[in-house]
Design a protein that fits this description.
There is one protein chain. The protein has 332 residues and is an alpha/beta fold. It has one domain (4-326): TIM Barrel. The chain has helices at 4-7, 10-20, 43-46, 59-71, 88-97, 128-135, 139-147, 167-176, 199-215, 224-232, 292-300, 310-326, and strands spanning 26-30, 76-80, 100-104, 119-124, 153-159, 180-185, 234-235, 238-239, 267-268, 275-276. The chain has an eight-stranded mixed sheet. Helix 5 links the parallel strand 2 (76-80) and strand 3. It is globular, with a radius of gyration of 19 Å. It binds iron/sulfur cluster (2 copies). One iron/sulfur cluster binds at residues 241-242, 245, 247-248, 278-280, 284, 286, 289, 291, 294.
């Protein structure tokens, strides 16, 4: 029987041991139903999730809820919305109680006197032209001023099909303000013309993401195996989709057979009672879902399947390390 230690040399085994101690238990929270943007393709608004539940306004109820989540074993709160920075008191309640990650469009600066080391992921949807088309605003112009040199912030760069051949200019701009970047792909939930992926474009962007990782290893947080998986939707001959997705809310997961999944994962609406199907929207077609976190979690929960060769297990370790870096469980 193949064991982890028989497949890895000393250096890789040490890396494996570091991540195997982490035991990450994440859940996702809609901090608010409001946002200061309305992006075309936002899964939250396009699926009506902003109307799925009435926002809880009582701070005491938020505090009690977060405590109960901690008791449930959650050790990573992923704060989304809507725009969490519109409700910094709620963000602070999470951050004071457990490791928290705040997803933001970057238009409002998270004040570092209140949140000295909270990880902030700033969304960026392509270059200035794409951003104006899809989000109505060049957000980078604002977010780069707000976060320049911030050691706890990185860009979550959603690549669109129009970005092929242009990613380097974005990576360089991010490097020049001293931030890191992680890449994922647009799912185009609102069917914006010209923003659907074609097979040859996915192959092209995979090669381009690999090249960016090689050229800017100090700026890009990624792995080539992850690039392959998000661009092909395939892992070890299996296809990503509803039957395999690990990021389904545990209490709504009636799949049979059960795939490997995130333990105790729930995505909560802002009334603190309603739950959503998964880490994106219930109306998204799983067969076209490009969600980066769901794909990397897919790899992470399938360790045993990657124990068929040294290369497969090293790929698994690199994806796990990438996830752990993005949430600062291990250093960048
Ligand atoms: S900034 Fe985020 S939450 Fe707000 S509309 Fe855009 S994608 Fe949706
Ligand atoms: S839409 Fe994506 S994240 Fe949600 S269940 Fe389907 S595959 Fe998973």
């Amino acid at each position: 029987m193949k064991t982890v230690s028989s497949l890895l040399d000393q250096e890789w085994f040490a890396r494996y041991q570091t991540i195997s101690k982490l035991n990450i238990r994440s859940s996702i929270y809609d901090v608010t139903n409001r946002c200061n943007l309305r992006c075309k393709g936002c899964f939250f608004f396009s699926s009506g999730e902003d109307h799925a539940a009435k926002e809880e306004m009582d701070p005491e109820k938020w505090a009690r809820f977060i405590d109960s989540e901690k008791e449930r074993g959650v050790n990573l709160a992923i704060l989304i919305g809507g725009e969490p920075t519109l409700c910094l008191d709620r963000v602070e309640m999470f951050n004071n109680r457990m490791p928290s990650y705040c997803a933001t469009n970057g238009l409002i600066k998270v004040p570092r006197d209140r949140f000295p080391d909270m990880i902030v992921g700033i969304s960026l949807w392509g270059d200035e032209t794409d951003e104006k088309t899809l989000r109505g605003k060049d957000t980078f112009a604002v977010s780069s001023r707000n976060y320049e040199g911030d050691p706890y912030a990185y860009y979550l760069y959603t690549i669109t099909p129009k970005q092929i051949g242009k990613t380097e200019q974005i990576i360089k701009k991010i490097r020049d303000i001293g931030l890191k970047v992680h890449m994922q792909l647009l799912s185009n939930d609102e069917a914006v013309d010209g923003f659907f992926w074609k097979k040859d474009e996915l192959e092209g962007i995979c090669a381009e993401m690999d090249a960016m990782l090689d050229a800017y290893p100090d700026t890009v947080i990624s792995s080539k195996y992850y690039h392959k998986i998000i661009t092909t939707g395939k892992m070890l001959g299996r296809s990503f989709g509803w039957a395999e997705c690990p990021s389904v809310t545990e209490s709504l997961d009636n799949r049979n057979p059960q795939p490997k999944r995130l333990i105790h994962f729930i995505r909560w609406a802002s009334d603190l009672k309603t739950t959503h199907r998964c880490c994106t929207s219930a109306t998204r077609d799983c067969s076209t879902c490009k969600d980066g976190a769901a794909h990397m979690s897919w790899v992470m929960v399938n360790k045993r399947a990657h124990m068929r060769s040294t290369e497969d297990l090293q790929n698994w370790i690199e994806v796990y390390e990438m996830f752990a870096k993005l949430y600062k469980f291990i250093p960048w």
